[in-house]
């Protein structure tokens, strides 16, 4: 069975504070984008094996890839047999596009179909959450408003058919999630929230506009209102990422922003331009 995992883009990303459990409270709208697609082949085999290649493979241990972890998870839960996995990485790594999470989620769905498990989307999403916080989104693979520590998903109706999306990734620049959050934790606050110093618990936002409200506004009004909080720390450290955003606006984009923790930047243009 061969499937083609796509990536995601973040429309707005607010880090609302640090939770008592050590995770960060956030909110964002995830949308699927198929401009980058990996190729994932999963088939029954006499013994487990995995091969990873492609232009975006960076030499990590294949046995620790999320696709391999997905197989081990399903094996342990449902007693499935060994498989052979072949993954071709076409989606950029360390770009804030969730390509690795997509691979893991698509592997779970492929394994369910391959072995006739008949798992529902919700059941698959529960398994995907054990692989990583972004993985459940790719089970549903439709626009989702994400909150909590990234584990609360809610279907969100948005129509971007009137726009053309472009994505750019700076050559040789990758931003780890750890690096992005470190910048937030050094005292760069979100304009959308305040945090109590005594407990690090998030209190309600005092922002005049919620993220949901901004998302319902015309795209042309999003600049300066639909923000990605990670840009505040990532742009000074990686000015080439900021330059991509500026270039999109020079070219006439209606809206441009970094996706997730970067380094990818995306822009919305009128579809007829």
* Poorly predicted regions: 188-207
Q: How is the CATH topology of the largest domain named? A: Ribosomal Protein S5, domain 2
Q: What is the averaged pLDDT score?
A: 90
CATH C-level label of the largest domain: Alpha Beta
Please work out how many helical segments DSSP would assign.
Answer: 8
Number of strands: 13
Secondary-structure element series: EEEEEHEHHHEEEHEEHHHEE
* Helix/strand class: alpha+beta
Strand order of the largest sheet: 1-4-6-5
Helix proportion: 25-40%
CATH architecture descriptor name of the largest domain: 2-Layer Sandwich
Largest sheet: 4 strands, mixed
The Rg value, from CA coordinates, equals: 19 Å
The rough form would be described as: globular
Question: How would you portray this structure in words?
Answer:
With 273 residues, the protein is α+β, with helices and mostly antiparallel strands. It is built from 8 helices and 13 strands. Strand 5, helix 1 and strand 6 (83-88) form a beta-alpha-beta unit. Helix 1 packs parallel to helix 2 (99-114), helix 2 (99-114) packs across helix 3 and helix 7 packs across helix 8 (239-250). The chain is globular. The protein starts with a strand and ends with a strand.
């Amino acid at each position: 069975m061969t499937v083609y995992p796509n990536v995601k883009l973040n429309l707005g990303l607010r880090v609302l504070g640090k939770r008592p459990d050590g995770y960060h409270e956030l909110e964002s709208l995830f949308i699927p984008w198929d401009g980058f697609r990996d190729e994932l082949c999963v088939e029954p085999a006499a013994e487990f094996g995995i091969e990873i290649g492609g232009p975006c493979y960076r030499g990590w241990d294949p046995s620790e890839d999320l696709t391999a972890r997905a197989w081990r998870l399903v094996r342990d839960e449902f007693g499935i047999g060994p498989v052979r996995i072949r993954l071709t990485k076409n989606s950029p790594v360390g770009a804030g596009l969730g390509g690795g999470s997509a691979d893991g989620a698509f592997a779970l769905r492929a394994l369910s179909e391959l072995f006739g498990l008949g798992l529902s989307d919700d059941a698959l999403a529960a398994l995907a959450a054990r692989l990583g916080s972004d993985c459940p989104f790719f089970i549903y693979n439709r626009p989702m408003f994400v909150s909590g520590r990234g584990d609360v998903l809610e279907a969100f109706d948005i129509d971007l058919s009137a726009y053309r999306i472009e994505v750019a990734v700076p050559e040789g620049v990758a931003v780890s999630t750890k690096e992005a959050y470190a910048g937030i934790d050094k005292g760069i606050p979100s304009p959308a929230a305040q945090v109590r110093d005594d407990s690090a618990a998030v209190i309600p936002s005092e922002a005049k506009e919620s993220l949901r409200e901004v998302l319902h506004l015309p795209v042309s009004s999003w600049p300066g209102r639909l923000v990605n909080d990670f840009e505040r720390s990532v742009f000074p450290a990686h000015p080439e990422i900021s330059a991509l955003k500026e270039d999109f606006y020079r070219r006439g984009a209606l809206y441009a922003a970094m996706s997730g923790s970067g380094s990818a930047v995306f822009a919305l243009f009128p579809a007829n331009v």
